[in-house]
């Protein structure tokens, strides 16, 4: 049955201003330098309007006469005593980005080249999540009919209008002990890097050139969070609380909605109410909020050497490629807020780790007559963990029931949850093999056919687990007088991100690019290209024995494009599809999480015209349409997925028109 629903519409307005400058100087044949500067300012205003309510998960009462399908799913039902909450939220975002890069290159004789790069970049982000609540007048309840739409989402019909301001009021309709909520996040991200490379070329021999060098990257990222309850009236007897049942006139106007069964929804500007004093802000402290304040610094030093190969193997085979190795040393540290026994604020904790990895690689291409190629690759690959997974924030408590997360207890212990500053990166041995055939038509158009196989053997991966942990060093509170449940020592369990071993990722890909004048010369300019891949994995991202999918992984992925390009004119139509996958989403508290989505199929089109001569030479015009069919993103339960939708997002199509000019 339907536990409840959330129906929202997002209206976004994005504006980006940017400036770029490149200065190049070459005073002689042996030295050249370049300086690159980039600045961007991005502003997004997002208004989130809608309604949410509980049925089985709220105070709703299921009425007799509902319809049940063959899988035991209620597909048509009526509920009374449903209490809807109208939301008018504002989620603005401001980004400022500045980057600078300075490159110098020296030619040291006939065969030696020395290059040096220095760079720095800085990103500052301010991000707010403002929630405001309204409800129906009177007892605030309504009758609801819920049905499953054939399009894959729930449709809701209420017996009252949400588009009549006279029937609405500003009130804590959800009984959440607040009349609104404000989250303010600030993120600062700084990266400074320096690199030096030395290369030596050879006139003959098996090795075409060698290069070696070193790189250091220093990154520091900080996140801070301030959160507030919004109160129409603050309780004088308890200044940290809102007056229960306080209300205010509804300030909005009727607007169209037309989604999920709701035709109209009266709305107002939440930012205006925040500015004009309708709400009083009450600072909120909680262990969950404390965990969102952290700082991470990492220094990554890399030393590498590489040999580039270009030689003939007999009269019919050409060998090209490279072989190399990197040594990567990482020094990472984090500071965060540790809270104990559910306290609102806590002490600052600092922790980190230092480790190194050796990353060899080999890439070879064998060229045969008639433009056949076999490519072979083998390497050890590394991917660093998410920054927030390495935060040093931990919340510790004493469970009142004999369980700590998923661990059954026989005695009282300390139970914690947080980040892992000692987390190491994903590490895998990767192998690739491909066969490719290239060809050229009589009109000079090129194409290819390709088949590839890939295999990754994970040596180290990251997953969520609960493990034994010693909380010695944390500010654990002493046993209070009369407290019966209290641990005998400092040992317990910690839930967080940890490293594991094992798992494989393997699959194959077929790809092609075919100019159609290969079939008939009259089709000169027409062509098709595409790819199809199948991937299997034995990786359990949430630990051994779990069944959740690897985030981002689809077993089947394909793409196809048909095009016409000739005389400066081009038109393309593309389609890409993927099978079901586990994707990233923003959940409770604006934290990132994952959920399972159904497969999707998206179509795009583009028309371009380039002026290649005349007074308009250098001018390009374009028109792009993305997501032509308005393909939804849809998550469902695994059982009876057609009748048990969880989330359904429609993004609409995007139309872009513009021009470019080269001179």
Q: How would you describe this protein?
A:
With 663 residues, this protein is mainly β. Helix content is 2%, strand content 64%. The chain contains 2 helices and 39 strands. The strands form 6 sheets. The protein has a 26-stranded mixed sheet that branches. Strands 3, 4, 5, 9 and 10 form a 5-stranded antiparallel sheet that branches. It has a two-stranded antiparallel ribbon with strand order 15-16. A hairpin with a 5-residue loop joins strand 4 (67-68) and strand 5 (74-82). The longest helix is centred in the middle third of the chain and has 6 residues, at 270-275. The protein starts with a strand and ends with a strand.
Topology:
Elements: E1 4-28, E2 31-54, E3 61-62, E4 67-68, E5 74-82, E6 85-90, E7 93-108, E8 112-136, E9 142-149, E10 153-158, E11 168-171, E12 180-201, E13 207-231, E14 247-249, E15 256-259, E16 262-264, H1 270-275, E17 280-283, H2 287-290, E18 294-313, E19 317-340, E20 347-368, E21 372-383, E22 394-397, E23 403-404, E24 407-408, E25 414-418, E26 426-440, E27 446-470, E28 491-500, E29 504-515, E30 526-537, E31 556-566, E32 569-578, E33 581-586, E34 592-597, E35 600-610, E36 619-626, E37 633-636, E38 645-649, E39 654-661
Parallel strand pairs: 19-22, 25-28
Antiparallel strand pairs: 1-2, 2-6, 2-7, 3-5, 4-5, 5-9, 6-8, 7-8, 8-11, 8-12, 9-10, 11-14, 12-13, 13-17, 13-18, 15-16, 18-19, 19-20, 20-21, 21-26, 22-25, 23-24, 26-27, 27-28, 27-29, 29-30, 30-31, 31-32, 32-35, 33-34, 35-36, 36-39, 37-38
């Amino acid at each position: 049955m339907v536990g409840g629903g959330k129906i929202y519409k997002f209206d976004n307005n994005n504006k980006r201003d940017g400036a770029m400058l490149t200065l190049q100087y070459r005073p002689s044949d042996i030295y050249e330098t370049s300086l690159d500067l980039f600045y961007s300012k991005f502003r997004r205003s997002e208004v989130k309007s809608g309604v949410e309510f509980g049925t089985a998960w709220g105070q709703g009462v299921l009425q007799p006469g509902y319809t049940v399908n063959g899988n035991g799913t209620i597909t048509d039902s009526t509920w009374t005593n449903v209490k809807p909450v109208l939301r008018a939220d504002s989620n603005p975002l401001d980004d400022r980005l500045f980057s600078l890069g300075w490159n110098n290159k020296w030619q040291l004789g006939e065969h030696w080249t020395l290059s040096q790069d220095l760079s720095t970049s800085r990103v500052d982000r301010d991000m707010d999540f403002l929630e405001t609540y309204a409800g129906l007048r009177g007892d605030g309840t309504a009758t609801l009919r819920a049905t499953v739409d054939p399009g894959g989402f729930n449709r809701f019909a209420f017996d009252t209008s949400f588009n009549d301001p006279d029937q609405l009021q500003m009130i804590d309709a959800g009984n959440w002990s607040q009349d609104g909520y404000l989250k303010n996040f600030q993120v600062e991200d700084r990266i400074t890097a320096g690199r030096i490379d030395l290369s030596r070329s050879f006139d003959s021999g098996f090795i075409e050139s060698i290069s070696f060098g070193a790189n250091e990257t220093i990154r520091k990222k900080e996140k801070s969070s301030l959160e507030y309850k919004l109160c129409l009236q603050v309780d004088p007897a308890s200044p940290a609380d809102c007056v229960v049942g306080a209300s205010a006139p509804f300030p909005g106007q009727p607007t169209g909605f037309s989604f999920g069964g709701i035709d109209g929804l009266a709305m107002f500007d939440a930012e205006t109410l925040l500015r004009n004093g309708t709400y009083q802000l009450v600072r909120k402290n909680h262990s969950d909020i404390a965990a969102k304040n952290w700082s991470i610094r990492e220094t990554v030093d890399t030393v590498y050497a590489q040999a580039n190969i270009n030689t003939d193997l007999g009269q019919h085979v050409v060998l090209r490629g490279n072989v190399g190795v990197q040594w990567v040393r990482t020094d990472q540290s984090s500071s965060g807020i540790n809270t104990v026994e559910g306290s609102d604020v806590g002490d600052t904790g600092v922790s980190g780790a230092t480790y190194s990895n050796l990353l060899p690689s080999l890439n070879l291409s064998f060229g045969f007559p008639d433009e056949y190629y076999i490519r072979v690759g083998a390497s050890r690959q590394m991917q660093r963990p998410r920054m927030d997974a390495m935060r040093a924030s931990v919340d510790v408590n004493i469970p009142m029931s004999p369980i700590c997360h998923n661990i059954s207890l026989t005695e009282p212990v300390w139970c914690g949850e947080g980040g892992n500053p000692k987390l190491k990166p994903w590490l895998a041995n990767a192998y690739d093999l491909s066969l490719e055939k290239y060809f050229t038509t009589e009109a000079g158009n090129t194409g290819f056919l390709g088949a590839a196989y890939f295999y990754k053997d994970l040596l180290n991966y990251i997953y969520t687990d609960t493990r034994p942990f010693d909380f010695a060093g944390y500010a654990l509170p002493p046993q209070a007088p009369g407290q019966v449940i209290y641990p005998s020592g400092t040992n317990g369990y910690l839930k967080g991100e940890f490293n594991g071993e094992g798992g494989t990722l393997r699959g194959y890909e077929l790809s092609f690019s075919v100019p159609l004048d290969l079939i008939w010369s009259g089709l000169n300019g027409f062509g098709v290209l595409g790819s199809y891949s199948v991937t299997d994995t034995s990786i359990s991202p949430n630990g051994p024995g779990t069944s959740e999918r690897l985030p981002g992984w689809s077993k089947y992925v394909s793409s196809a494009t048909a095009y016409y390009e000739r005389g400066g004119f081009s038109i393309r139509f593309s389609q890409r599809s993927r099978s079901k996958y586990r994707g990233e989403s923003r959940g409770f508290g604006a934290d990132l999480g994952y959920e399972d989505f159904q497969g999707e199929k998206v179509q795009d089109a583009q028309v371009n015209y380039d002026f290649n001569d005349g007074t308009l030479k250098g001018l390009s015009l374009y028109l792009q349409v993305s997501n032509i069919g308005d393909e939804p993103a849809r998550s469902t339960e695994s059982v009876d997925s057609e009748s048990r939708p969880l989330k359904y997002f429609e993004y609409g199509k995007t139309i872009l028109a513009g021009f470019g000019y080269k001179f």
